[in-house]
Specification:
Elements lengths: L20 E3 L2 E11 L2 E7 L9 H8 L9 E6 L9 E6 L5 E2 L3 H15 L3 E6 L2 E7 L5 E7 L21 E2 L2 E2 L2 E4 L3 E6 L8 H9 L9 E9 L2 E8 L3 E2 L4 H13 L6 E6 L2 E7 L4 E6 L2 E9 L6
Parallel strand pairs: 3-4, 5-7, 13-14, 15-17
Antiparallel strand pairs: 1-2, 2-3, 2-20, 4-5, 5-6, 7-8, 8-9, 9-19, 10-11, 12-13, 14-15, 15-16, 17-18, 18-19
């Protein structure tokens, strides 16, 4: 039987101002505010034309006091015909620096594209590679984050070492494991999450000389072989309610240490993610997405 595509939904997130509209001295553009387990994003659609979303402008809009505010700034960009993907997703941290991967943002963008196209399976292209996504019957979104990369040069680290035991410490934590999920991660395993001063040591660890591109710093507590508690200090964003790629890295590193099964629930501050590290090396992440609101913004209010 040939699977029929779902009827395309209306596009509440794509109002007429997809491209900049000049009104007197203003340049108005539409955006969508979304989140996955509290990991929040401002999403712009540039498939019909450039909006001039420079790193500086992205940082201004991402600011929680003077902009819309988000953990990551997302632009959906077009691909050439025959690209074998549905759209390109550009990811920027709140400081405007481009990021290679963001699992929760990928799930959010897949949700939008599925609502537009009526299809349950899509491919999102990023600078870290193509990420296949699937809309499940319960509304959750599953994304294949690709293979976990475990070599020191792939993370990358500043020097060669065993990525299962990194030479990194900041009292009271030590001996993390490293992993790349399209962006660098270090996972510390702790006995008591409440005893770790994440806001104090997170910035130091993020900028440690061991990480030439900085790193996302995860703190994982094993609750059961199939349940982990995780908090992540994200590079350029700080402590977030969820980090999808961090959840993937935590599960991979926990299994490598013999602490968790290949398929586990990762509990983050904003909810739960189901993570599976398949035997072919690929990591699947499943979780909820939500649209918080849509709006319009004057891009000229933010320096380009």
């Amino acid at each position: 039987m040939v699977e029929q595509p779902r009827k395309a939904a209306s596009r509440p997130w794509a109002l007429p101002f997809a491209r900049p509209v000049h009104i007197s001295a203003f340049m108005i553009a539409h955006f969508t505010k979304m989140h996955g387990c509290g990991n929040d994003f401002v999403v712009f659609d540039e498939r019909t034309g450039s909006l001039g979303l420079t790193p500086a402008r992205a940082a201004g809009i991402a600011n929680r006091r003077t902009g819309v505010g988000c953990d990551q700034f997302i632009a959906i960009e077009p691909l050439p015909p025959g690209a074998n993907a549905d759209a390109f997703m550009r990811i920027r941290n709140p400081d405007g620096v481009e990021a290679g991967a963001c699992g929760n943002a990928t799930r959010c963008v897949a949700h939008l594209l599925a609502a537009e196209s009526g299809r349950d399976r899509l491919v999102i292209r990023t600078i870290a590679g193509d990420l296949p996504a699937e809309i499940l019957g319960d509304g959750r979104v599953r994304v294949d984050m690709g293979p976990a990369r475990l070599d020191w040069a792939d993370i990358p680290l500043a020097r060669a070492m065993d990525t299962l035991h990194l030479d990194l410490a900041a009292s009271p934590v030590a001996d993390p494991a490293g992993c790349s999920m399209g962006n660098p991660h270090a996972t510390f395993f702790v006995e008591d999450m409440a005893a770790v001063p994440i806001a104090e040591i997170g910035p130091r660890l993020e900028h440690d000389p061991l990480f030439p591109d900085r790193a996302n710093i995860g703190f994982a507590q094993i609750l059961a072989p199939d349940r982990l508690r995780l908090r992540v200090w994200e590079r350029g964003a700080g402590l977030t309610l969820a980090c999808g790629s961090g959840a993937c890295a935590a599960l991979v590193n926990a299994h490598r240490r013999g602490l968790a099964e290949r398929r586990s629930t990762v509990i983050v501050d904003g909810g739960e993610l189901e993570i599976e590290w398949r035997k072919d090396g690929h990591v699947l992440m499943t979780g909820p997405v939500a649209i918080s609101f849509t709006g319009e913004i004057d891009l000229e209010a933010y320096a380009a």
